[in-house]
Amino acid sequence: MSQTPAFPLRVRAALLDERLHVALGRATDALRSRRSAAIGSLEGFDEVRDLARKIKMELLADLSSHLQRFEERLIANGVSVHWAETGADANRIVAGIAKSHGARRIVKSKSMATEETHLNQALQREGMEVVETDLGEYIVQLAEDRPSHIILPIIHLTREDVGEVMHRRIGVPRTGDPQTLAAYARAKLREEFLSADMGITGANFGVVETGTICLVTNEGNGRMVTTLPRVHVAVMGIEKLVPTLGDLDVFLKLLARSATGQKITTYTTLIRGPRRRGDECGPEAMHVVLLDNGRSRILSGENAEILGCIRCGACLNACPIYKSIGGHAYGDTYPGPIGAIVTPGLRGLRGWSELPAASTLCGACRDVCPIRLDIPRMLLGLRRDTAREEGAPWSLRLGLKAFAWIAPRPALYRAATRMARAFLRFRARDGWLRRAPGLASGWTRVRDLKAPAAKTFQQMWKERQS
Amino acid sequence: MSDPVQLFHTCLVNEIAPEVGMAAVRLLERLGRGVEVPLEQTCCGQPAYNGGFHEEAKAAARHTLDVLSATAGPIVIPSGSCGDMVIHQYEVLFRDEPEWRDKAHAVAERCRELSQFLVGEWAQVPDRPRLRLPARIAYHPSCHLLRGLGVSDAPLSLLRAIEGVTLADVNDQDECCGFGGLFSVKQPEISGSMLDRKLASVAASGADRLVSCDLGCLMHLGGGLRRRRSPIVVQHLAQVLDEALP
Amino acid sequence: MSARTAVLARLAAAQRTARLPTPPAAKPLVSATRSVAECGERFARELAGLGVDGHVESSPEGVRARVSALVEGKKVLSWDPDQLPYGLGAVLGEAARGSSPRADQAAAEIGVTGCHGAIAETGSLAVLSGPGRSRTVSLLPPVHVAIVTPPDFCFTMGEFFAREARRIGEAACCTFITGPSRTADIELTLTLGVHGPGKVVVVVGP
User: Fold this and answer.
1) Are C and B close enough to touch, i.e. 3+ CB pairs under 8 angstroms?
2) Which of B196, B222, B197 is nearest to B211 (CA)?
3) Do β-strands A198-201 and A231-237 pair in parallel, antiparallel, or remain unpaired?
4) pLDDT in tens, C59-84
5) Choosing among C113, C129, C135, C185, which should be mutated to test the A contact, i.e. which has the most A CBs within 10 A?
6) Contact residues, chain C, for A181 at CB < 8 Å
7) Is pLDDT of B99 > 70?
8) What is the SS3 assignment for B58?
9) Of A250, B28, B182, C65, which has the fewest CB atoms closer than 10 Å, so is most exposed?
């Protein structure tokens, strides 16, 4: 059950926020055009997407074997492997790892999986200090806010907002200059990196054949977090595998282009295990936590393909609903089209069924998805599940029963529609209604309703033919 | 003389904008095609389907398939969204019912959205009528037409065939207008926000007409323009072409 | 039942009922091999686009002179001399190394490394960790100087994976570095040098 205010309230709050609107519009427009330019630089973009889809769909069909092989290779590389059935289990495991290594100061590189499990709060309850080190996530943490976009977590904040947060929370002089703010963050976080006991990351990909974790970042904090502290923990969703390094290459061609419009991010790091003999730096111990938390349930159904998502965020930037309401309105870790499917999938449909309903099924998301995920199909399926499980308000149910009865009976259909037409025409002025009744009242809240015609097309047609 | 076409006029055309249906008839006849209208048709069932009510949608779908299967020859549909429903979604709806799925497939093969059909006919007709209409037109590609059916060029090339027409530059032209069927009444505020963006782009384009191939979008856009007291004329593609006929 | 058993059992059951779409037919990627000269040219163009200073030297003395000039007057952190090409150890003086105290490493103003691959298609440097090749060198200082030798060149990352599979397997960490550290988190405004080096210089030798 969602703990944040109800979806309609979140939507209304977002729509009333003019600054958010401007920020979202600007950012999604920029990311969309950068993406367009970047995919232009990749020859055979659609063929590469087909290949990526093929790799992921085949992998998912046999995920358990791939995971076991991945685990074998991780262990051979000197990595300790842990399995977490739920988010709470993952948190418990990570806290346990920290305690066993005597780790109290923890630095984190961005990981959506750990946001999903609310890891930071769990570790803080155990008395550990956890610092987010992605600039955007760091600000989110300082502001006690939540990220609103998968790639740009503070897309909803202005530079002045950021300056205010940093001034209030770490005492730096107030400024709105991004360079200066970044420099403050660099200095402050460097202290954290150098003194931390443990680093936590997610994993963009896990390569089965080599037992390697791949991290994709632009800032360098992913490297800091996996190089300086003596322990590294990577929390990875069980679906994030690719079979070989050659397969990884396919996804690396698509991820940055789809997410930020870069050919490749500044740092692409492949980590094979803790430091090797003779290495002068690197963690002494490395742990990987394999997270289920509902992914196996998603795999069991007709939305299994959503597990092929590589978290690029392209669907968010293409979605006109996301552009209108932003990430917080979706109420959970993953916003946008991907969130509308993943959130009900991981958390259950109850309490989240408004998400798949809040879409026009325009298909812009499917157009840009590097894995060609058929998001509209899955949204329709979730709506069908919602109708089955939750039913509908009695007025709608009555209307549907009536529709199902009259639609196959033309004479009844004509009689019913004749009544409806007459009713609406009666209420109209100059052929329009400014306030429609009942179910249609939502229509006239934002636009006029054209009154039905005096004669139907079929009537006009029959007259013409006679 | 080629087969007459069956017109699946759609419920919105029938009830709200019959003039669109009449315009489509005149266009088809002008291109040398006979037109027949299966009078038993009612509704393709899309609103129920999109709402997740598959059993109710199936009731409408089965009737639609029965009506259309009793005819022969091409079926023309003046709507991208109803077109996508009949052409693609019926087979998904009846995925687990082989008899209905096959029936849906056979009907789908015969179906074309109106602009798709006209563009094919237009190319083949020996003495094409000369289309003329001075207008600055903003074209709105409805999502089911553009992405569902993959029809992007046909409406544009038809509009370009009209002497005197300028196609206005619309920012983010391919972005959804916010209609989305029942979405328009279940999420009116988000629908309104998307409408605002679309109408701002249309206004900025300097167009005097807004044209689309889907009545749902046109009602939504037209209703918004009316609320804003805008002079921009809203028309279905069939109406523009009909008006441009000599 | 352990968590591992439970998860694997759930997955096995899920795989039986999963409704996955039929995978599309797709051809594997074709790796384009290019000459060293073509690679060098493309690499230089990519570096320019990334804002990385690129220098091409035609002799080992030229490389040493260039690097000397770059590190002049600065505290240096570097790979061990036996890991660097072109006898660069000689010109780096009293450089801190991976074995130096962390505080000294953190105080360095410029880091000097070699590389294991120079990926022309993206302008990326591939760096493998190992003895004498501390990861901190290309990470902590605000400026990173990377020395490339012609055999390092390849056109794509896929080629590098294929060519260097064995060496990648021996390293705890393989990092591809493509330009300076950057972020656009604040209002999409580009800022360089957030955590990693804000300036990268590449010197290609003969």
Assistant:
1) no
2) B222
3) parallel
4) 999 999 999 999 999 999 999 999 99
5) C185
6) 186
7) yes
8) helix
9) C65
Give the CATH number for residue C149. Answer: 3.40.50.10420
Q: B107 with B25, same domain?
A: yes
Which chain B residues are Cβ-neighbours of A420 within 8 angstroms? Answer: 15
B36: alpha, beta or left, given left = phi > 0 and alpha = psi -120 to 50?
beta
pLDDT at position A1 over 50: no
* Residue range(s) occupied by CATH 3.40.50.10420 in chain A: 42-293
Q: Say yes or no for a CB contact (<8 Å) between A443 and B39.
A: no
d(CA A120, CA A128): 9
B117 burial via Cβ count (<10 Å: 0-12, 13-18, 19+)? buried
The domain total for chain B is 2
Between A and C, how many residue pairs show a Cβ–Cβ distance under 8 A? 256
Specify whether B132 is located in the same domain as B232.
yes
- At B153-163, the pLDDT tens digits run 999 999 999 99
Pick from B87, B102, B119: which residue ends a domain?
B119
Any A CB within 8 A of B206 CB: no
Q: Which residues of chain C neighbour A275 with C-beta distances below 8 Å?
A: 129, 172
B158 with B237: CB under 8 angstroms? yes
- Whether residue C15 and residue A64 make contact (CB cut-off 8 A), yes or no, is yes
- Interface probe for C, chosen from A33, A140, A299, A305 (most Cβ of C below 10 Å), is A299
Q: Which residues contact C156 (CB under 8 A, 6 or more apart)?
A: A249, C31, C32, C119, C120, C121
Q: For residue C58, give how far its alpha carbon lies from the nearest alpha carbon of chain A (Å).
A: 28
In which domain, by residue range, is B78 found?
Answer: 5-119
Nearest beta carbon to residue B188 from set A385, A420, A445 = A445
What percent of chain B stands above pLDDT 90?
93
The token duo for B47 is 């609103």
pLDDT at residue C153 tops 70: yes
CATH number for position B224: 3.40.50
Q: Do A159 and C177 touch (CB under 8 A)?
A: no
Write out residues 5-44 of A within 8 Å (CB-CB) of C: 23, 26-27, 30
Is residue C29 in some structural domain?
no
Q: How much is the pLDDT for C29?
A: 87
ipTM > 0.90 (yes/no): yes
**E strands present in A111-204:** 129-132, 198-201
B132 reaches A (C-beta below 8 A): no
User: What values do phi and psi take at B154, rounded to 5?
Assistant: -55, -50
Chains A and C touch (3+ CB pairs under 8 A): yes
With respect to residue C32, please indicate whether it lies within any of the assigned structural domains: no
Residues B15 and B110 grouped into a single domain: yes
Q: Which two tokens stand for residue A96?
A: 């346990």
Look at residue B116 and tell me whether its pLDDT is greater than 60.
yes
> Is residue C21 domain-resident?
no
Predicted confidence (pLDDT) at residue A333 exceeds the cutoff of 50: yes
Domain of C92?
Answer: 42-180+191-204
Do B110 and B164 fall within a single domain?
Answer: no
Residue of B nearest to A363 (CA): B147
A4 confidence band (pLDDT: 50, 70, 90): low
B38 touches A: beta carbon within 8 Å: no
Quickly state the pLDDT bin for A231 (edges 50, 70, 90): very high
Domain stop point among B69, B102, B119: B119
Determine how many CB atoms are found less than 10 A away from the CB of residue B59: 23
- The total domain count for chain C is 1
**How is domain A42-293 classified at the CATH fold level?**
Rossmann fold (3.40.50)
pLDDT interval class at B71 (50, 70, 90):
very high
Among B4, B27, B24, B30, which Cα is nearest to B12's?
A: B24
Identity of the residue in A377, A403, A447 whose CB atom sits nearest the CB atom of B48: A403
Residues A136-155: tens digit of each pLDDT: 999 999 999 988 888 899 98
**What CA–CA distance (Å, rounded) separates B195 from B188?**
10
This prediction's pTM: 0.95
Least CB-CB distance to C175: which of A51, A267, A278? Answer: A267
Q: What is the pLDDT of residue A148?
A: 87
In this structure, the answer to whether residues B24 and B83 fall within a common structural domain is yes
The number of CA neighbours under 13 Å toward the Cβ of B60 is 27
Q: Is residue C27 part of a domain?
A: no
